[in-house]
Amino acid sequence: MQRLLTSSLLLLTAAAAAGAATAAEPSPEGYWLTEKKSGIVQIYRCGSDMLCGKIVWFRIKPESPNPQGLDLKNPDPAQRNRSLCGLTFMSGFKPTTPPGAWEDGRIYDAESGDTYHATLQLRTDGTLSLHGYIGIPLLGASEVWTRDTQPVPACPGR
Fold first, then answer.
1. What is the CATH number of the domain that holds 126?
2. What is the value of pTM for the model shown?
3. pLDDT per position as a tens digit, 102-130
4. Domain of 115?
């Protein structure tokens, strides 16, 4: 009986440790300042194990041809009057190995109106690498975002 109790206690301890390790897995959930510091993106869970991202703030330059921050390049003319603020432009990112990596995502580029395949990778320095590509990951471009912990300013035009 003592042996059974000891074995059960060891299994329970191991299960608790495994749960703690899973809970401590790095996550990109939160707010991120884009590489050029021209926007803030909120990454959040959408579905049981997927990540999505939406624009929560962006800078409009005074000489911008789009002073209202609308989705002017959208291939669907019915969507061209929607605001970029609050737009979910990242979707479907699924966890993969190593921990801190996500794949099979899609990212919409409002500057061109194109949608690309994408991956995310939390880097050891705490930054987030977003890689968008066409076809295969070798053909693409990456940006490095930094976590933003400041209060998010109001979107332009709101």
1. 2.40.128.520
2. 0.81
3. 999 999 999 999 999 999 999 999 999 99
4. 27-147
